[in-house]
Amino acid sequence: MNSFEFNKIAGAVLATALVVFGLNQAKSMIYHAEKPEKQGYAIEVAETGGGTGGGETTPTESLGTLLAKADPVKGQAQAKACLACHVFEKGGPNKTGPDLWDLVDRPIAAHEGFAYSDSMKEHASDKWTFENLNKFITNPKGFAPKTKMTFGGIKRDQARADLLAYLRTLSDSPKPFPAP
Ligand code: HEC
Hints:
By secondary structure, this protein is mainly alpha-helical. The chain has 7 helices and no strands. It folds into 2 domains: 31 residues; 107 residues, Cytochrome c-like domain (Cytochrome Bc1 Complex, Chain D, domain 2).
């Protein structure tokens, strides 16, 4: 090997070393410049209902809980909306809608002399439990899509529970509320 060749090889080795060194430098610069993905701490906040104790209800309250604190006197005021079409008296007549005396636990679409819609008759094997009444009065068309009852429903949970507590009293033997 003459000195010229030696210089060429030495030069190549040196150049390679410089490139490798340079790459490492560059790499460490890039890595140091990288920022953590999240800055600060992620704080998880649990969602709470409006538990103000001021009569506000959360949708998670069971019907039994709502009924346990329901007020039938307030429910009677709610029931005025029903009087446009229903009578609440024992042996009372059917009007636009059937008489609603002793409604709780009575078979669905079974009041004598009333011509129910097919949509309501589809539920005829079931009873007007508190749960079914609660669903129907929340949204009549949600319960029986083609019902003849043209009533929008009562959306506030506690107002509905008050109404159910009142309807329950319209009986010779009021039925027990479901457990909270
Ligand atoms: C605009 C008239 C109208 C109003 C207001 C109305 N209803 Fe009705 N209701 C009807 C009609 C009509 C039917 C029969 C529905 C059918 O056959 O699809 C009915 C049926 C019912 C039934 C089924 C009874 C059974 O024998 O199966 C219940 C329960 C009921 N209504 C409760 C109520 C309550 C509670 C209110 C008040 C919050 C109310 N309705 C307001 C017209 C009305």
